[in-house]
Amino acid sequence: MDLEHAIHQNSAKVNWAYAKNRKESWKTVLALAYQSLGVVYGEISTSPLYVYRNAFAGDIGRSETNEEIYGVLSLVFWTLTLVPLVKYVFIVLKADDNGEGGTFALYSLLCRHAKVGLLPNCQVADEELSEYKKHSYGVAPERSFPSRLKSMLERHKVLQRILLVLALLGTCMVIGVGVLKPAISGDFVCFDLRYIFLEFVGYAKFLFELNAVFSAVSGLELSMSKEHHRYVEVPGACIILIGLFALQRYGTHRVAFLFAPIICIWLFCISAIGIYNVFYWNPHVYQALSPYYVFQFLRKTRRGGWMSLGGILLCITGSEAMFAGLGHFSQLSIKIAFTSLVYPSLILAYMGQAAYFSRHHDVEQEYHFGFYVSVPEKLRWPVLVIAILAAVVGSQSIITGTFSIIRQCSALSCFPRVKVVHTSSKIHGQVYIPEINWLLMVLCLAVTIGFRDTKLMGNASGLAVVSVMLVTSCLMSLVIVICWHKNVLLAIGFVLFFGTIEALFFSASVIKFFEGAWVPVALAFVFLTVMCVWHYGTLKKYEFDVQNKVSISWLLSLGPSLGFARVRGIGLVHTELVSGIPAIFSHFVTNLPAFHQVLVFLCIKHVPVPHVRPEERFLVGRVGPRGFRVYRCIVRYGYHDVHKDDNEFEKDLVCSIAKFIQAGSGGACNSSNDEPEKDGKMTVVGTNSSSSHPILMREHENDVDLAETSTESHKVVQPKKRVRFVVPESPKIDVGAMEELKELMEAREVGVAYIIGQSYMRAKPGSSMLKKIVINFGYEFLRKNSREPSCALSVPHASSLEVGMMYQV
Fold first, then answer.
1. DSSP class per residue in 304-369
2. Among 10, 150, 312, 801, which one is most buried in terms of CB atoms within 10 A?
3. How far is the C-alpha of 409 from the C-alpha of 561, rounded, in Å?
4. What is the spatial distance between Cα 440 and Cα 180, in angstroms, rounded to a whole number?
5. Following DSSP, what letter does each residue of 246-280 receive, concatenated?
6. Can you give the pLDDT at residue 809?
7. DSSP class per residue in 199-259
């Protein structure tokens, strides 16, 4: 296919995609709602497996009356109604960051409406991005409370740091859930398998008694006695976990078509069993939905009932996934899926379990209030198979969510550089991070082997879940005031109502700190320390670059020849600066007084929006007069954008510079003067696929120098690359621009070299002991053990040149 036709076709696809996002048909919405069942609702849908077992701790639920069972059911019902349904579905989902959700999305939304980001590389041109302007709620009046609150946050660095730590804390707790949820699911699957096995052994015992071989079966049953059960349960859970994490490298999209049907079947299954149990065992169980039983339960059980709130909390695990998975679907599709299927199915399942337990107070202590005992006997084997699949899907969703969160944090300089593998060419959010995957597996195995008790893991998971919800409530109250410009009383009412509910659950989880709840605190502390150290080191590195950057006047004082030898080719100097000349470049030319005939200061910057449109991707300007052939190019990505491979990126970069030359923009300096560069003169240039008049670059590699082929037959001959720009006739290009394009074309034929700074940081003499520990040991340890900048930027090793430099910060 002709290149020009392909580019125009790609542009049409991009425009069609944006139009499709603006106006969704009902068919699309319903399809997304169906797909969200497997990706978003896997975790919350499997909560009936373990909620009652964790809620009825100690002597709770052991009495002959049904008041306690009704009280727990009432608490489960109102918790599911108020938190996932009212808070998330009807309120929090509206606070999307241009279609993206999650704790970090709320933080980026606040950063966009108020300048509270700590990395000072934001430009005025960034605020002109289309994604910045989407869903704008206007500007609050100058003397209003939202305006004063915004000004206060922008003035005080301490408040900005607190806000960042709060967002990172919520993120770390989500990672903690990602560690605990697979362990809980795997352990409960093995628990149910153990129950079925013992049931099978009991049946086999009866048969073998008839055949006079009772002793053999008795020995088998003895080998599975209570004190030896863990020898089967724990290894089984570990095998499931290893298999689950081993499959992650193949990508979510390869098994995604199985997720939604599994959860759909599971929800229909538990709702049907719930309806059967209600009508067969206790049709009057619906009375427990009255809040009267909540007060009666708490009044009667007192401390025991309050502590059981930690187990009841598990019924809303996965609520945050509705908000975090918003980027893969839409608000309407997630709302439809929850309100029409997930919510009613869960309520029926919990009612059915309560109806069964209200008529069975004599179930064996070990399995009392387990999910499996409430399933009709003839259905236990097929239900078990569905439960295992549903538990794996639920774990998969939180693991995938953890990958997305780490990717967001890494893009916004809050996590060390990691390898991000995009497992789907169609859905940008499906990523795989090998380092995080194996780290999660090791942590999951450690939790499973170390605890060997689902109650302890449930206590740990409950604290992590409610901590994320508290952080969301706090950030949401700020969004209501600063972004939505609503009355402050509405924000206070929101945080007081939902914050009180979540604080009550939080207190019940904290009281079990030494019974497993310490695990998410320890995990969050470790991950939070890593994030804070990395962000602090990155901030200090950027401040050093800003303070030690070389002025444009230094470059201009060198004259037209610049005082250096110019070699053929294009040199891309990677820098985080959006203005000025980085110190790494002056360090390079001081030791090696030569650089390329076309020099580009390249800044790859992530802005606090999920996506940047292709037509707004590049900011191109000129450094010095036209004869210098020195440019600045700022490439802007959202925190969910996919960085192209090196070949496509090079083509887009060179074509953006060519389009800048074609437009006749002088950038910072026109060809007629030597005025210093100004950031305001940068020009927005889109990629070729987004342009209506693209400059096409054709590359041919079939021209071979015959002189090199006649000497040695075994010699490998590299074909020479021929580059040609196909420039549209309109607008007209002057002679100087044509010469500049010709030189750019010749440089591209020679090749592109990536000059990357390799910084080594040390704290300044006289710094505090804490700063020396953080910089000299903490940040340097993370830098040495994280991905190199060339790997994170997908730079080909053969074309990269690293320049080392010591940073005294």
1. HHHHTHHHHGGGGTTHHHHHHGGGGS-HHHHHHHIIIIIHHHHHHHHHHHHHHHHT---S-GGGTT
2. 312
3. 43
4. 9
5. HGGGG-GGGTHHHHHHHHHHHHHHHHHHHHHHHHH
6. 81
7. HHHHHHHHHHHHTT-HHHHHHHHHHTSGGGTHHHHHHHHHHHHHHHHHGGGG-GGGTHHHH
What is the pLDDT, as a whole number, of residue 4? 39
Question: Phi and psi at residue 56, in whole multiples of 5°?
Answer: -85, 80
Rounded to an integer, what distance in angstroms lies between the CA atom of residue 596 and that of residue 615? 28
Report d(CA 170, CA 471) in Å as an integer.
6
Give whole-number Cα distances, 669 to 376, 551, 672, in Å. 80, 14, 8
* Virtual torsion, Cα 638, 643, 648, 652, nearest 10 deg: 30
d(CA 780, CA 653): 32
Token readout for 567 is 């070699």
Number of other CB atoms surrounding residue 406 within 10 Å: 27
Dihedral of alpha carbons 775, 777, 783, 784, sign: positive
Using alpha carbons only, give the angle 77, 82, 86 rounded to the nearest 5 degrees: 130
- Across 470-555, the runs of DSSP E, i.e. the strands, are none
Tell me the CA distances in angstroms from 607 to 46, 119, 167, 638, one per residue in order: 37, 11, 17, 5
Return the DSSP state at 669: S
Residue 497 identity: F
Distance separating alpha carbons of residues 135 and 97, to the nearest angstrom: 9
d(CA 603, CA 199): 65
Both tokens of 210, joined, read 């008839």
Token pair 């309806």 in the structure block, residue: 275
Whose structure tokens read 């599709």?
333
Give the Cα separation of 400 and 358 in Å (integer).
38
SS (H, E, C) 36-71: HHHHCCHHHHCHHHCHHHHHCCCCCCCCCCCHHHHH
Rounded distance between C-alpha atoms, residue 669 and residue 692, angstroms: 27
Of 669, 588, 587, 675, the closest CA to residue 631 belongs to 669
Positions in the chain whose pLDDT score sits under 70? 1-24, 57-64, 118-128, 130-143, 183-234, 252-257, 327-328, 362-370, 397, 424-430, 452-459, 555-563, 643-646, 664-681, 686-733, 789-794
Give yes or no for a cis peptide into 344 (omega within 30° of 0).
no
pLDDT for 379 equals 85
| φ/ψ of residue 511, rounded to 5 | -60, -20
User: What pLDDT, on the 0 to 100 scale, is given for residue 501?
Assistant: 92
- Supply 549's token pair: 């950057």
The pLDDT of residue 498: 94
Nearest CA to 598 among 488, 741, 709, 765? 741
Q: What is the 3-state secondary structure (H, E, C) of 125-181?
A: HHHHCHHHHCCCCCCCCCCCHHHHHHHHHHHCHHHHHHHHHHHHHHHHHHHHHHHHH
pLDDT given for residue 62 in this prediction? 58
């309100």: which residue's tokens? 339
pLDDT at residue 254, as a whole number: 63
Q: At what angle do helices 434-451 and 454-478 cross, to 10 degrees?
A: 130
> Residue 198 is encoded by which pair of tokens?
């013992």
**Amino acid present at 445:** L
**Distance in angstroms (rounded) separating the CA atoms of residues 152 and 723:** 54
The DSSP secondary-structure symbol of 86 reads I
Q: What distance in Å separates the CA atoms of residue 101 and residue 68, rounded to the nearest whole number?
A: 38
The answer to whether the beta carbons of residues 523 and 175 sit under 8 Å apart is yes
Q: What is the pLDDT of residues 260-281, one digit of tens each?
A: 898 999 999 999 999 999 999 8
Q: Which two tokens stand for residue 373?
A: 């005992």
Closest by Cα among 512, 523, 504 to 453: 512
374, HSE (Cβ side, Cα atoms, 13 Å): 35
Contact 392, 244 (CB under 8 A): yes
Write out the two tokens for 660: 């800048």
Start-to-end CA span in the chain (Å): 54
Hey, what are 406's tokens? 């780490």
Tokens (6 digits) for 321: 């996934």
